[in-house]
């Protein structure tokens, strides 16, 4: 079983890197990708926990914005952690999250919702990359909503009146940086229309030109028609097809390995990194 897209409490998941690796081992996964939002903070703990037959793919899910303001998430996998410019880009993207959160809270308070930055900080694990899921957790804690999923279907959706974008690289810039750092770039859930505005098929040529390696096709936020369209698009553009859980622990319904990548597609994707960086024990 190969799951290339998961999160820990170093961003907006609820499991520590150690707990996630142990769960993957217990479930019999063969390849686990850890891709916390805009950070590599969980890499060391995950690698130290590794044992048995599990192979670890380390990466990050990079928050991007198109020139039209559409939110896009880019999975960077197997890149060099010591690549200075890559780490600078991740840091700058993280730094943009705080003013964004403050603006979203201001909008909610103006609408009469009892929420504060202190509430969000109380819901965020120490050292975790700040994100909308922590705002969702704070809203749950305050009794405003019942779950993260409810939040992202309404109040925190990209089309919500409370949504605020933040400073971020364009998808093409993120891809170019991932490739420069020796890694591979896979666009995450690109047709997930329930999240808000999405890319169109015509947008992919720019991403191909920047070095895009693959498309996350099989994901719970894609309906069957969207998966079929993306699979055809990947085939037409000679891109790797991946399937992933986007697991966040107890924070979301996504179950570890509920969608997977085939061994053949994973082998094709890994071969496109400049070095073999899969962590094994």
Automatic annotation (TrEMBL):
<protein>
    <submittedName>
        <fullName>Unannotated protein</fullName>
    </submittedName>
</protein>
<dbReference type="GO" id="GO:0035312">
    <property type="term" value="F:5'-3' DNA exonuclease activity"/>
</dbReference>
<feature type="domain" description="Polymerase/histidinol phosphatase N-terminal">
    <location>
        <begin position="2"/>
        <end position="66"/>
    </location>
</feature>
<dbReference type="Pfam" id="PF02811">
    <property type="entry name" value="PHP"/>
</dbReference>
<dbReference type="InterPro" id="IPR004013">
    <property type="entry name" value="PHP_dom"/>
</dbReference>
<dbReference type="GO" id="GO:0004534">
    <property type="term" value="F:5'-3' RNA exonuclease activity"/>
</dbReference>
<dbReference type="InterPro" id="IPR052018">
    <property type="entry name" value="PHP_domain"/>
</dbReference>
<dbReference type="InterPro" id="IPR016195">
    <property type="entry name" value="Pol/histidinol_Pase-like"/>
</dbReference>
<dbReference type="InterPro" id="IPR003141">
    <property type="entry name" value="Pol/His_phosphatase_N"/>
</dbReference>
């Amino acid at each position: 079983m190969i799951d290339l897209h998961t999160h820990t409490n170093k961003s907006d998941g609820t499991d520590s890197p150690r707990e996630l690796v142990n769960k993957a081992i217990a479930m019999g996964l063969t390849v686990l990708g850890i891709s916390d939002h805009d950070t590599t903070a969980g890499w060391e703990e995950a690698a130290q926990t590794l044992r048995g037959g599990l192979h670890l793919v380390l990466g990050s899910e990079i928050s991007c914005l198109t020139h039209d303001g559409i939110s896009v998430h880019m999975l960077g996998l197997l890149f060099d952690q010591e690549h200075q410019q890559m780490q600078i880009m991740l840091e700058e993207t993280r730094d943009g999250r705080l003013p964004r959160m403050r603006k979203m809270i201001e909008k909610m308070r103006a609408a009469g919702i009892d929420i504060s930055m202190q509430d969000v900080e109380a819901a965020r694990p120490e050292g975790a990359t700040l994100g909308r899921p922590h705002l969702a957790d704070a809203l749950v804690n305050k009794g405003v909503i019942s779950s993260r999923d409810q939040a992202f279907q309404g109040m925190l959706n990209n089309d919500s009146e409370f949504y605020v974008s933040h400073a971020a690289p364009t998808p093409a810039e993120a891809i170019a940086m991932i490739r420069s750092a020796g890694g591979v770039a896979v666009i995450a859930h690109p047709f997930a229309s329930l999240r808000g505005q999405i890319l169109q098929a015509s947008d992919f040529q720019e991403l191909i030109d920047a070095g895009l390696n693959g498309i996350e096709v099989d994901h719970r936020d894609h309906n069957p028609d969207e998966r079929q369209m993306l699979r055809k698009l990947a085939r037409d553009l000679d891109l790797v097809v991946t399937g992933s859980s986007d697991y966040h622990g107890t924070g979301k319904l996504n179950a570890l390995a509920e969608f997977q990548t085939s061994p053949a597609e994973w082998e094709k994707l890994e071969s496109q990194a400049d070095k073999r960086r899969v962590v094994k024990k």
